[in-house]
Amino acid sequence: MARKISSSQIRTKLRQQQNKQRQAVNKYNQAVRKHNQNVRRAVNNYNNEVRRYNARVRAYRQKMITELNKFSSRTTIRYEVLRTSTLSLNSTYQNLEAKERDFENYEFGNEFLDLSEKENANSLAVSNALENDDQENSDFNEDGLSNTTITIELIQISDDLDNRWKGALFSLSPRNPDASRHFCTSAREIFIQILNHHAPDSVVLARFPECDKTENGAPTRRWKIKYILVNAGIVSDEAVDFVDEDMKNVLQLFRVFNDGTHGEVGKYEFEKLVAIKERVESGILYLSKISNYA
């Protein structure tokens, strides 16, 4: 015999079903709201990052344009060798920038272009600083020459390399008649060691047996740079050209610095020493970031 269900039981069951349905709807709506919040958060984060990236690029681009205008308007040139190197680097950067769309396919591509644009701007800036005769000798400030933005990049390779940079900064003073030799010798060795650490001769030769070699049979600097860039996912002759030209530009700066200060105390005033230090520092960071990404 079938059990008789009262009207109150029916209402109870209906309420239970309605409650379950409301709970299911609420749960679904909560999930939708959470999903929409995550989407909005992701979009906002992306837009913020794009704005930050564009702000950095605009800052470097404006600096580059400003320094290039100053550089191009000079009629009297004291450091012709450095000027030629700076123009060459700028030309190489223009070739790199012309391939901008290709770099969108590289994971490290946009950041590499950003860093390269900054290097080009810094190269123009130090050339302008050295050619500028309008500055007066300012009060010497130890902090301006001893402070550095290089933090863990060198010590990750070796304590000796980190100490070399600290020693280079310590020697860089308008009061030190031998500042150029100490600073340039240490800084040049830092660039060499960064390349050798991230692109050892044997590894580069194994990867590129057809590479150009020095008289000692070691891969040339250009091929070491190519090895590092390929490991970073950047397969581009324009990129290799720019990084190689950037290192040449820093080496030309060493030559000018040595010629200008040897035996002459206070040849360069404080502002120019800071400009030289910041250019070399920027070059070290540039090479380190590219190498570490690989």
Key features of this structure:
11 helices, 294 residues, mainly alpha, single chain
Write the layout of secondary structure elements.
Elements (H helix, E strand, L loop, with lengths): L6 H67 L6 H19 L1 H4 L5 H23 L10 H5 L12 H13 L7 H20 L2 H7 L13 H11 L5 H25 L8 H24 L1
Explained architecture:
It is a single chain. It is built from eleven helices and no strands. With 294 residues, the protein is mostly helical. Helix 6 runs antiparallel to helix 7, helix 7 packs antiparallel against helix 10 (237-261) and helix 9 (221-231) crosses helix 10. The protein is elongated, with a radius of gyration of 29 Å. The model is unreliable at 261-266 (pLDDT under 50).
Largest sheet: none
What is the number of beta strands? 0
State the separation between the terminal residues, measured CA to CA: 81 Å
Radius of gyration, taken over Cα atoms and rounded to an integer in Å: 29 Å
Outline = elongated
Order of helices and strands: HHHHHHHHHHH
Residue share in helices?
over 70%
**Count of DSSP H/I helices:** 11
Overall pLDDT: 86
Strand-residue proportion: under 5%
Helix/strand structural class: mainly alpha
Low-confidence stretches: 261-266
In summary, what is this structure?
It contains 11 helices and no strands. It is mostly helical and 294 residues long.
